[in-house]
Design a protein that fits this description.
The complex is a heterodimer of chains A (about 250) and B (about 80). Chain A contains 9 helices and 13 strands. With about 250 residues, chain A is of the alpha/beta class. Chain A has one domain: Metallo-dependent phosphatases (Purple Acid Phosphatase, chain A, domain 2, 4-Layer Sandwich). In chain A, the strands form 3 sheets. Chain A has a 6-stranded mixed beta sheet with strand order 5-6-9-10-12-11. A 5-stranded mixed beta sheet of chain A has the order 4-3-2-1-13. Chain A has a two-stranded antiparallel sheet with strand order 7-8. In chain A, α2 packs parallel to α4 and α5 runs parallel beside α7. Chain A is globular and about 50 Å long. With about 80 residues, chain B is α/β, with parallel strands linked by helices. Chain B has a single domain, classed as Alpha-Beta Plaits, CATH 3.30.70.1350. Helices cover about 35% and strands about 25% of the residues of chain B. Chain B contains 2 helices and 6 strands; from the N terminus they run αβββαβββ. In chain B, strands 1-2-4 form a 3-stranded mixed beta sheet, covered by helices on one side. Chain B has a two-stranded parallel sheet with strand order 3-5. In chain B, a hairpin with a 2-residue loop joins β1 and β2. The termini of chain B are far apart. The model of chain B has no long low-confidence stretch (mean pLDDT about 95). The chains are: A alpha/beta (about 250), B alpha/beta (about 80). At the A-B interface, β13 of A face β6 of B.
């Protein structure tokens, strides 16, 4: 089994120093990897990333992360990425990584993602330039995510790590009016085409923990304000054999 | 100000809480009752709770600010979930 600790939306800053670290002590006893699902900082300042990096110092398992919208707010996302990378965190934006877990290969494909809405109520690349850019940005991200998942097709366990939500099910509890700003079905379509064992995301603080993509892949919302825990733990079987790419959404395309 | 529809006032507060760098948060519920503004929800630190009061008082200087948000304590991780 591969054991995963995951949390998003820690919204860290100096004033939170010492709140997370005690929960991360001896993490290797419970998990093989720590995944961070974006919104790592409060308002996207480099000093907030430094505070988080200090909080993660001493974590005894590999840490992989994606950024979230808060991490872009201060337009310091490159500095935030650099700060976390220097601290040993692997920050993924349309990229994949393989983590060796006692000889098994854990693959993680990560991207922030973006909004646009869900089947029956989603935006299209039509009209004003900003609207085309909005949906185009989401579509581009979904395409990159699909490629990144393809890179880890031979991993024993494959995780899609996002900030924005790929399905409506994990948004239930949020106001319907904000769904288009919380995620996009395009992300789920990409995941269903490429295949994965688990999708982790944050962003929806008032959503629901559990969902599933139309293609049948488990989705978990690990936004910390929702789970109210330092992190959630997941176990995945690493002995299930060769993965096939997803087919459900591909057939629907 | 007295005739301003309540929903516009509430939205000004929401926007200030989201956009003011002292808060940068979106999780606070806002309700108005006469000249009182009630704030509820969870915040991660006492500093951010205090900042919420300051920002809302600046937006609505003629209202009493009733900050009923609470500082949320993090629970430890629970039992792992088997994903099958």
């Amino acid at each position: 089994m591969i054991r995963i600790a995951a949390v998003g939306d820690v919204h860290f800053a100096g004033d939170a120093a010492g709140t997370l670290a005690p929960h991360l002590a001896d993490l290797a006893e419970h998990a093989d990897v720590l995944l961070l699902a974006g919104d790592l900082t409060r308002i996207g300042r480099a000093d907030e990333a430094e505070a988080l990096a200090a909080e993660l110092d001493g974590v005894d398992v590999p840490v992989l992360a994606v950024l979230g919208n808060h991490d872009y707010h201060g337009e310091q996302e490159e500095r935030i990425t650099r700060t976390l990378t220097d601290a040993g965190v692997q920050v993924l934006e349309g990229e994949s990584a393989i983590v060796d877990v006692d000889g098994s290969r854990l693959g993680v494909a990560g991207i922030k993602g973006f909004g646009g809405g869900f089947s029956g109520a989603c935006g299209t690349a039509f009209g004003e330039r900003v609207m085309k850019e909005f949906i185009g940005y989401t579509q581009d991200g979904a395409d990159v995510l699909e490629r990144a998942l393809g890179e880890i097709q031979d991993a024993d366990v494959r995780i899609a790590l996002l900030h924005y939500a790929p399905v409506k099910a994990t948004l239930v509890g949020e106001k319907l009016e904000v769904y288009p700003f919380l995620g996009s079905y395009l992300l789920a379509e990409a995941i269903d085409c490429a295949g994965a064992d688990l999708v982790l995301h944050g962003h929806a603080h008032r959503g629901t923990e559990k969902g599933v993509t139309p293609g049948g892949i488990h989705v978990r919302n690990v936004a910390q304000p929702l789970i109210r825990r330092a992190f959630n733990l997941f176990c995945l079987d690493d002995q299930r054999g060769v993965h096939e790419p997803g087919t459900v959404a591909a057939e629907a395309r | 100000m007295e005739d301003e529809p309540k929903q516009y006032v509430i939205e000004r507060v929401h926007r200030a809480l989201a956009e003011d760098p002292r808060v940068g948060g979106l999780d606070v519920d806002v309700a108005l009752a006469g000249r009182r503004v009630f704030l509820t929800g969870d915040v991660p630190t006492q500093e951010r709770r205090d900042a919420i009061s300051v920002v809302v008082a600046e937006v609505l200087p003629d209202h009493d600010v009733c900050n009923e948000t609470r500082v949320a304590e993090l629970a430890p991780a629970g039992e792992p979930e088997d994903i099958t």
